[in-house]
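Standup notes
- DV: blocked on the single-chain target, sequence here:
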Amino acid sequence: MKLNGKLDYLELPATGGTLDSVKSFYSAAFSWSFTDYGPTYSAFAEELDGGFQADAGEASPKPLPVLYSENLEETLNAVENA
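- DV (later): unblocked, structure below
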């Protein structure tokens, strides 16, 4: 169940190697499995869903957290007024 205002997805840049080497590391270290979406993006679905972006032109240079919102207008208003 998705919870309002909670971390929902985490996109990470696939730095330090190829997408295959990043997937190999996380598979070996943490037993993660992946679903490829083209040659430059691979998603994982563990306790937290996320993905690795290998296209330097598309990837954020830092981790990109995505928060879940049940109502975007209300969330936007709350963020702007915080």
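- Follow-up: The first helix runs from residue 19 to 30.
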